[in-house]
Specification:
With 252 residues, this protein is of the alpha/beta class. It folds into two domains: 1-75 and 155-252, Rossmann fold (3-Layer(aba) Sandwich), CATH 3.40.50; 89-150. The chain has helices at 40-47, 69-74, 91-101, 106-119, 135-147, 165-180, 192-198, 216-222, 231-238, 242-249; strands spanning 2-10, 15-24, 29-33, 55-60, 63-64, 76-79, 153-157, 184-188, 201-206, 209-214. The chain has a six-stranded mixed beta sheet with strand order 6-7-8-3-9-10, sandwiched between helices. It has a four-stranded antiparallel beta sheet with strand order 2-1-4-5. Helix 3 (91-101) crosses helix 4, helix 3 (91-101) packs parallel to helix 5 (135-147) and helix 8 packs across helix 9 (231-238). The radius of gyration is 19 Å and the shape is globular. The protein starts with a strand and ends with a helix.
Length: 252
């Protein structure tokens, strides 16, 4: 389970995240949505210990991140919005490196490395330097590295940006399979179609505050939209962007 308690991040003149309270249970795919600058990436960086909160708590799998950072982070697989890879390693070496960070025994490490390369459609590229990979291949490799220790919590920031349809379809299956084994998937995305297709619940953050939380059906009710309305229409209504979109599309 992921639990955020009064999580706050304040910069000098900006309140980036404002008293965020949220619980995401085991086995759920949770979509974290919001306009640009809403506080999504700041929240995720605090969840992963990359940013120090101004106040509040992050609890991951029952471990308080501030008090038990290694135990909390050890439960997680994390894919940032701009992942870094080591171009002079091969794909196999990169997965070996990731597996060793989590102290996987050599036999387990070798088996999972080979299995994950195949699962992520990289089987023929394991011995090639990463510098020769396409953008989508690098994304799939980073996702494989985040999952190689079979984390209880998978936290991803914009996972499908720049991904071709085949890769996006593969990631969707990976997310579903991950949740099916009881892990939590916390996904920040601008792709409302992906969120609508995959997520059990969705939270919408705006100006650092959680303004809506629930299933897509529940959010439709909040937005007074018909049962067949898209998540995009619901999102625009709840964030007050409906009229702005129309006005910007019709210049004077």
């Amino acid at each position: 389970m992921i639990e955020l308690v009064d999580l706050t991040k304040r910069y000098v003149n900006t309140l980036a995240v404002d008293g965020l309270n949220l619980q995401v249970p085991d086995g759920e795919i949770f979509g974290f949505l919001g306009p640009n600058g809403a506080g999504k990436t700041t929240t995720i960086r605090m969840m992963m210990g990359l940013l120090q909160p101004t106040s509040g708590r992050v609890v991951l799998g029952g471990h308080d991140l501030a008090a038990e950072p290694l135990a909390a982070k050890g439960l997680c697989g994390f894919v940032p919005d701009r992942p870094h890879v080591y171009d002079k390693l091969t794909g196999s070496e990169y997965l070996d490196f990731a597996a060793q960070l989590y102290s996987l025994p050599e036999g387990v490490r070798n088996e999972r490395r080979d299995r994950f390369l195949e699962a992520f459609d990289l089987g023929n590229w394991g011995d090639e330097l990463i510098e020769g990979y396409s953008h989508g291949m690098k994304q799939r490799l980073v996702m494989a590295s985040a999952l190689i220790h079979q984390p209880r919590l998978l936290i991803v920031d914009e996972p499908t940006v720049g991904m071709d349809p085949r890769g996006a379809r593969l990631l969707k299956k990976i997310f579903k399979d991950t949740a099916a084994r009881g892990a939590t998937v916390f996904m920040s995305t601008h792709s409302l179609e992906v969120a609508e297709e995959l997520c059990d619940r969705v939270g919408i953050i705006m100006k650092g505050r959680l303004i809506a939380l629930g299933t897509v059906a529940e959010l439709r009710e909040m937005a007074d939209h018909a049962h067949d309305s898209s998540l995009e229409a619901v999102f625009l209504r709840l964030t007050g962007a409906e009229d702005d979109v129309v006005e910007e599309a019709l210049p004077a």
